[in-house]
Amino acid sequence: MKVLLRILLLVLCSISFLPVVYAQEEEEFSSALDSARAAEDGKEDTVIYSARYVRYTTLAMMKQGTFTYQIDTLHQNFQYYNPQNQPRNPSIHLGSYGLATRDLLFVPNKTIGFQTGFHSLERFLYQSDSVKYYRARAPFSELYNVGFFFDDQILRAKVTQNVTPRLNIGGEFHAARADGYYINQRYNDVKSALFAWYESSDHRYNLLTNAVFNRLTSTENGSVVNDTLFRNTERGPSDSESTRLRGTRDERPRHTWRDNSVFLRQSLFVGRLDTINAEKPEQQILPTNRMSHSLNLRFRNFQFYKNEEDINNAFPFGDNVLTQDTTKVTTITNDFGYSFYLRGKSLAFIKNEVKLDLGYQHDMHWYRDRGYSTFLQNSILKAGVGYRFSDRVSITGDLNQIVQGANFGDYLYEAKADILLSNTIGRVVLGAYLQNKSPEWLFQRVNYTYHQWEHNFDKTKTTNFSFAYENPSIGFSGKTEYFLIANHLYFREIDNPSVDARLLRIIEPAQLGNNINLLKITVGQNFKFGKFHFDNYAVYQKSDYNAVLAIPELYTWHSLYYNGLLYKIVDFNLGFDTRFNTPFPAPSYAINIGQFYNDNAGIEFSTYPIVDVWATATLKRANLFLSYNFINQFVWPDGYYSVRRYPMNNANLRIGISWKFYD
């Protein structure tokens, strides 16, 4: 009965996202659509309506011109649904989907200005600048589900259509629920978005707008009580293990994030317009002068709730039962920009192109936590220059400087040279940037139940140089990066040489007095032997402060799979993945503030290859995957850690399916 109810719910969700109201289309648009349908009904080979006619753009793409990409209908990498387990962006976390997560590798934060410092659930947020805007001659919808017959469920639904040839509207709904493997690992979220894209008939005016809503709830169990969990070969099921926090239902300890935003961007092209692939779905409009304005209103709320005695020492010393630590931030951003392009009038106008970008951004932040509120603002000047010698060589430079406000003096200067040697030899990319960044707010001031501090740290300065080479013809990509980091900020457990119980688990922000030199080498190599594929990815990180950064020296990922065609209609991949990293001082986790920190124990956990087996397939317009993750738990090891005291997930089976409808 439970299974039947879930199937019924999935069907009802599918139906609810089908459009129920259709607007009258203009004559030109209707004729094109009728021709496509007539051709398909008549079994003709001309103007068949396909995925080529369902296209999307993004905010980043629209900053370069007006062009679109075709929707992805392939099943490649479809099995990597979990944002925590991305092969080229791995993480450490608390052991289940939706729980607090941190990057495993060193990934620089290239932002300036005001930041809250809350990052533990960022991988699960739906960001306003991630929204896709569509062009679709007929309604396009997609339904995505992972789990299906299991307690963990991830559901996504999307529908969009052009109500006129120039206006597309649509919406998305995302929902997830994961019960985890141990007590109090439940996670659930509800995320939704409404979006619209309007382009004038002369292609000079574009309007992008969206409204995004996030509500994430991540339960905290304080870790398992048994610190030697995997040494007991006769241990019972994971959900029978005692955890430090035991509250249930509405009284369960949890982090709740709300992140809602409204975004609107208008752009106007002035002067000559250059067109590539005119009158085709792949058409590109390149302006010579562009003016733009963006408005973004964002409302964020971070709350930690607990209402039980701390009998198992999950928190620092204290007798607090009820904890309701809340931080609220309201942000209004206005961004004005002007771009000028100088290029020839010949058909080869993409050669010898000069670009100049000028911009001004004003941010206003209203911040409030327990017993404290303040108003901050920043004025940011932006500039960018670029020169494209041809479609093979381009040089760009960007400048972002805060010239007034709370974070005065922050800057990010960046330069890049992109050189295509040849399709056979490959491409070289040279890069460099300088960053001066203010401390995030949680490093400067906190007034929570278990932690209070107020500091005035120096800005963090980062210098970076990079060299990248890629050659798709042989499946190779590589990048070497050097970082020089001054005044690095991190969280640590306070010094406690006498192991005083009243000082355990109390953390503080710290600033490293010495410079960090970090070398990061990334290599990817994909091999193909007939229908067999062998993809490889490795990252080597070496610095004089790997322990402070809490990163492994080596991380590798390998995927061996077979690609075939079943009954001439089912394209499929069948294979397995293996990932591994060298030991490193695993951080601990401060529950009430949601931060990973370096503890005084400095324990390095043994690491093991983790093996996943999987299959993906495409049948017409449906993509499917079946995966069994951490399958080697049935052989060795019994389990493993990436964060101190928090065991990682058990072996688990997952099924996913995605349907696309566009006719």
TrEMBL record:
<feature type="compositionally biased region" description="Basic and acidic residues">
    <location>
        <begin position="232"/>
        <end position="252"/>
    </location>
</feature>
<dbReference type="Pfam" id="PF14121">
    <property type="entry name" value="Porin_10"/>
</dbReference>
<keyword id="KW-0732">Signal</keyword>
<protein>
    <submittedName>
        <fullName>Putative porin</fullName>
    </submittedName>
</protein>
<dbReference type="InterPro" id="IPR025631">
    <property type="entry name" value="Porin_10"/>
</dbReference>
<feature type="signal peptide">
    <location>
        <begin position="1"/>
        <end position="23"/>
    </location>
</feature>
<feature type="region of interest" description="Disordered">
    <location>
        <begin position="230"/>
        <end position="252"/>
    </location>
</feature>
